[in-house]
Amino acid sequence: MREMMEIVHKSLGGVALKSLTDEQKVKLKNNYNCKLYLFDYGLNTSGDLVIQTTRGNYTNLLYYMGFDHAKNDMIKVKIEVADDVVVIYNMENERVAGLAEKLGLVG
After folding, report:
1. What would the DSSP string read from start to end of 32-60?
2. Residue 35: per-residue pLDDT
3. Which residues are CB-neighbours of 93 under 8 A, at least 6 positions away?
4. Average per-residue pLDDT in the chain?
5. Quick one: DSSP state of residue 80?
6. Is the per-residue pLDDT at 50 higher than 70?
7. E strands of the chain, at which residues?
8. 87 band by pLDDT with thresholds 50, 70 and 90
9. Whole-number Å distance between alpha carbons of 64 and 36
């Protein structure tokens, strides 16, 4: 249990989440033809993408971004509490890096 707590602390420590701007909402809707407005995002100290959203929107995000929920090698850590989901995505995944670029987190 202690090891899990240390992983969570290390993965989320110092993360400052941002909300989508109106411009980003339009860009994501145009690119993915969906409403992915309901998530906050940021980078952790390891440079991985952190997303906080609701359980329903998390499923939409997986689907519309083309993430395979059965093969989740792009997920480093996933935490669910009630209806809230926090996911840390591996930036080495091409689709994750593409989303991070669209969010303006990487150049």
Report:
1. HSS---SEEEEE-TTS-EEEEEEHHHHHH
2. 60
3. 73, 74
4. 84
5. E
6. yes
7. 18-19, 39-43, 49-54, 75-81, 84-89
8. very high
9. 9
**What pLDDT is recorded for position 30?**
64
Structure tokens at 80: 């669910």
Supply 3's token pair: 């090891």
The CA distances from residue 9 to 2, 28, 45, 62, in Å, are 10, 30, 11, 24
Task: Tell me the pTM.
Answer: 0.84
Average pLDDT of the segment spanning 57-71 = 75
The two three-digit tokens of residue 98, written as one number: 């593409």
Two tokens, residue 44: 């952790």
Walk me through the domains of the chain, giving residue ranges and CATH numbers: 2-102 (3.30.200)
Tokens of 47: 């440079």
Helix (H, G, I), strand (E, B) or coil at 88: strand
Q: Label residue 7 left, alpha or beta by phi (over 0 means left) and psi (-120 to 50 means alpha).
A: alpha
pLDDT over 90 (residue 5) = no
